[in-house]
Amino acid sequence: MFCEPDISYNRHLKSLLLQNGFDVYCPNDNVEINDKTRSDISAEKIYNLDINELMQCNVFLCRIGLDCGTMWESGYMDCLSKHVDSTRYFGCIGLTTDIRLQTTPDVSKSGIDNQSMYLDQFIIGGLKLSLGVVFNEEQLIAKLKEIECENS
After folding, report:
1. What is the widest separation between alpha-carbon atoms in the chain?
2. H/E element, 59
3. Which tens digit of pLDDT belongs to each residue from 12-23?
4. Which of 35-39, 74-78, 117-121 has maximum average pLDDT?
5. CA 6, CA 89: separation in Å to the nearest integer?
6. Where are the domains of the chain?
7. Which own/partner contact pairs does 16-24 have at CB distance under 8 Å and 24+ positions apart?
8. Can you give the pLDDT at residue 129?
9. What is the C-alpha to C-alpha distance for residues 82 and 146, in angstroms, rounded to an integer?
10. What's the pLDDT band for 51 if we cut at 50, 70, 90?
11. How far apart are CA 137 and CA 97, in angstroms?
């Protein structure tokens, strides 16, 4: 969410979700925290603004990666859905479009010679126990429509 290709993709996802009738909050478009010309933006302000937006959502979509802020938000939504109000907060969906995940691991090779990609299994376990992991935009839209039908 911090470099131009990721920002562009996040905005593309936002547009796709809006076209499919979903309300969307995209943190990349939040001027309150992304105007880098301002000097009053603090870690606490970013946290509070993001959590306030998260509390308005019922599904958290995260692109699976190594950003610890996204993983914190994912865990926060998971807690809301399991321990606060499961009729209001439905959980988290992980999206990964990384083609390396299509590679079958080769048990005869280890480390960097094994042409498979590692994802943090704690994060994957949490996402699987929440709303799951999808591997492309079509699966994402289908999963969100399924959640919408189940909860309407």
Report:
1. 54
2. strand 59-63
3. 999 999 999 999
4. 74-78
5. 26
6. 4-150
7. 16/137, 16/141, 17/141, 17/144, 20/141, 20/144, 20/145, 22/144, 22/148
8. 96
9. 19
10. very high
11. 8
Q: How would DSSP label each residue in 2-48?
A: -SHHHHHHHHHHHHHHHHTT-----GGG-HHHH-TT-S---HHHHHH
Residues near 99 by Cβ (< 8 Å), separated by ≥ 6? none
Give, rounded to a whole angstrom, the gap between the first and last alpha carbons of the chain. Answer: 31
Interhelix angle 68-79/121-129, rounded to 10 degrees, is 30
CB 130 within 8 A of CB 91: yes
Tokens at 53, concatenated = 């937006």
Are 143 and 126 a contacting pair, CB within 8 Å? no
> What residues does 62 pair with on adjacent strands?
94
Torsion angle in degrees (nearest 10) through CA of 141, 142, 147, 152:
90
Check whether domain 4-150 has CATH 3.40.50.1370, yes or no: no
pLDDT digits (tens, 9 = 90+) for 66-109: 678 888 999 999 999 999 999 999 999 999 988 878 788 888 88
Q: What is the DSSP letter of 107?
A: T
* Sequence-ordered list of residues with C-beta below 8 angstroms from that of 92, at least 6 positions apart, any chain: 59, 60, 61, 62, 74, 77, 78, 81, 126, 127, 130, 131
